[in-house]
Here is the input.
Amino acid sequence: MRLYFMRHAESEANRKNLLAGQLDFPLSEEGQRQSREVADAFLRDRPIDAIISSPLLRARATALPFCEALGLRLELDEALLEQDMGVFSGSSYPEAEADPRYELDKSRRWDWVPPGGESYEMIARRLRPFFERLDGRRPSPENPAANPEHLLVITHAVTLRIIEAYLLASLPRYPTALARNGEILETDYRGLGIPHELERHYWGKDSEGRA
Here is the structure.
């Protein structure tokens, strides 16, 4: 099974330098353009059989050009939601970083729970059933009738950070770098607990995000 994990295109929260969390920000005008350009570039030489997205608007809007080009119905999965940032949802980065309750060290967020929100460990727990559902879609001795698929999965910066750690089989360690808006991680998925090789695709000019 070939998997492509994509961070959504630029949202209004990204444009305004806000911590969106699970607030439902739309794509910015730049993000709408970016999603169309990424879909056009990505689909030139890659087959996609199904598209799965976070239910949040910025992810669904990123998926739209792919769905329209391929005539596919979008599947939604709440496991792909962004981290719930609790009291920091909607705050600017300077506001959050000035609050002593905010964990500035990206490498120490596994057990850190933003007040009213969720930790990285909690995100990993909600993602595990998603990977188990992917396992059910893979051809295997237990499921030989499953069709090999090329899946595009559209999610968010922090959630993608934990997804990458799952694919690297490194949890509770996780990458501190973030995927950029519109960046895609590609892998030949072979199941949970197996270290995977990842290939990155990016067609923009943005630097790493800040979450």
